[in-house]
Structure formats: structure tokens, C-alpha cells
Design brief:
Helix content: 25-40%
Shape: elongated
Largest sheet: 5 strands, parallel
Bound molecules: S-adenosyl-L-homocysteine
Order of helices and strands: EHEHEHEHEHEEHEHEEHEEEEE
Radius of gyration: 20 Å
CATH class of the largest domain: Alpha Beta
Strand order of the largest sheet: 3-2-4-1-5
Distance between the termini: 64 Å
CATH architecture of the largest domain: 2-Layer Sandwich
CATH superfamily of the largest domain: Tetrapyrrole methylase, C-terminal domain
Number of strands: 15
CATH topology of the largest domain: Methyltransferase, Cobalt-precorrin-4 Transmethylase, Domain 2
């Protein structure tokens, strides 16, 4: 009997792939995943069988992994970022449990909220939450309620899946809801294609955020009430004092 690794490969570049992910990929006979992710690892791990699958067949992908592991193979099921954040870790464990296959190991990775935050500065320096705008598996009303609650709770908010070909307009709708609670000048940022070709980032206010042209490789950041932009960095303070003074939301020390 083989085993299954569910591996978060990080955002895309080799520097942010963990050593644990590299070791698990090296130990595997076959790499299974969505085409884009296979393309990100194919040159680095030559000699592996590669099994590309389309985005929609996630449960089939898990069943296929079990089938291959039962044949004695060590299987790497890969996803971008972290495997447990809107990734394959939970479906793989659910299906493994249903089918009585338990030799599954989850290898963590650097999720887009963290790799994107580093590019923008320090936007998630205090309590934050992530909300996916994909309503493929979550009713839109639930997403709306979570947006409202996160805004009322003064969390920094990281939006995953802000848009896709089938889901244009979700970021605009989300911004409208956030603007019903938060001020229009709330500092925000976004990062596209982290660690990949075409990497791009920007800063904006919440009123401008709907216009950023987000796609499915974009992660969006909304600051909390203390966040500010200074030297083109989005910073959410932890509350430290500097020479007995606090840095105020405008970024001035007073
Ligand atoms: N497991 C992934 C998330 C998968 S959901 C992780 O932990 O990062 C897909 C969403 O993740 C995308 O719509 C985008 O919002 C974000 N994302 C994943 N990889 C990204 C990248 N390289 N650059 C920017 N955003 C990314």
C-alpha cells in the first residue's frame, strides 16, 4: 500500500516552497494536480509521473489518488498556497475517511494571504480573516453575512477568489457591502500572480477597490481601522509605541 501527500506548493516561485513540500515531492512517484500547478513543478521534479486534471473534478482527483496509492504508489496531490486553505486537504481527508484510506499526510504551504501580505508590506499585522468570494460551494448570502461581520469586527480582511470568468462582479458586490459598514478611504491593496509571471501589486482605497480588474489569480487586502499606507507599504500596526508615541492611522507619529 502506498500513501498520499497533500502538498501546498506555495504561491508559485521556488523560494516560497517549503523544504517539507520539496521532500514530499521528491519522495513521490506521481504528482497529481490542476494543470497550472503541475506546470509550476514539472521542471523541478523530473522523472515523476504527472497526472493533470481539470479544475472542476476535485473529488475525482481525490478518488484517483486513493486508487494509485492502493496500487502501491506514493502520490503527491498538489495545490497552490496551503493545502488546507480552500485547497485539497479537506476533500482528500473526507473522501479518504469515506473510503477507509487513512495514510494521508498534509504538508503545509505559504498561503496567498501571507505571500501577498509580504509583497504589500504588513497588512495582516493584527487580527485578520480570509473570505472566499466563490459561491460555487458556499451560498452567496453566507458570503455577504461573513463580509458584514468581518467589517463590523474591525478585522483586516483578505479576499480569495475575487473573480473568475464565470463570476465577474463579485468583487464589486463585496465592496458595496463593505462600504455599507466601512469608510471609503479605508486603505486596501491587491496582488496578482504572486511568485509567477505577470506578478503585479497595487494599493487603493476601499471606494476604488471595485475597479482594480481582479482575476482568478488575484488576492485582495482590506485594512482595519488602524491600517495606513506609508512609503507605498500597507501597514496594520500592532500597537507599539515609538518614543512613547503611537503611529496614528494617517501614518504620522503623534
Ligand atoms: N490554497 C490556495 C488558495 C486557493 S483558492 C492558497 O492557500 O493560497 C484560489 C485563490 O487563491 C485565488 O483566486 C487567489 O485569490 C488566491 N491565490 C492563489 N494563488 C495565488 C497567487 N499565486 N497569486 C495571487 N493570488 C493567489
Amino acid at each position: 500500500m502506498g500513501k498520499i501527500f497533500v502538498i501546498g506548493i506555495g504561491p508559485g516561485d521556488k523560494d516560497t516552497m517549503t523544504e517539507g513540500a520539496v521532500s514530499a515531492l521528491e519522495a513521490s512517484d506521481v504528482i497529481v494536480g490542476y494543470r497550472t500547478y503541475i506546470d509550476l513543478v514539472r521542471d523541478r521534479f523530473p522523472g515523476k509521473d504527472l497526472l493533470e486534471s481539470s479544475m472542476r473534478s476535485e473529488t475525482e482527483r481525490c478518488r484517483k489518488c486513493i486508487e494509485l496509492a492502493k496500487e502501491g504508489m506514493t502520490v503527491a496531490l498538489i495545490c497552490s498556497g496551503d493545502a488546507g486553505v480552500y485547497g485539497m486537504a479537506s476533500p482528500m481527508l473526507e473522501i479518504g475517511a469515506a473510503e477507509g484510506f487513512h495514510d494521508i499526510e498534509i504538508i503545509p504551504g505559504v498561503t496567498a494571504a501571507l505571500s501577498g501580505a509580504a509583497l504589500l508590506g504588513a497588512p495582516v499585522g493584527h487580527d485578520f480573516c480570509t473570505i472566499s468570494l466563490s459561491d460555487l460551494l458556499t451560498p452567496w448570502e453566507v458570503i455577504e453575512e461573513r463580509l458584514r461581520c468581518a467589517a463590523k469586527g474591525d478585522f483586516c480582511i483578505v479576499l480569495y477568489n475575487p473573480s473568475s470568468n464565470k463570476r465577474s462582479g463579485h468583487l464589486e458586490k463585496a465592496c458595496k457591502i463593505l462600504l455599507s459598514v466601512l469608510p471609503g478611504d479605508r486603505p486596501c491593496g491587491y496582488v496578482k500572480n504572486i511568485g509567477r509571471n505577470g506578478c503585479e501589486k497595487g494599493l487603493s482605497t476601499l471606494s476604488e477597490l471595485a475597479g482594480i480588474n481582479a482575476d482568478m489569480a488575484t488576492t485582495v487586502f482590506i485594512g482595519n481601522s488602524s491600517s495606513f499606507i506609508r512609503n507605498e507599504r500597507l501597514i496594520t500596526p500592532r500597537g507599539y509605541k515609538y518614543n512613547n508615541k503611537t503611529m496614528n492611522p494617517g501614518g504620522e507619529i503623534s
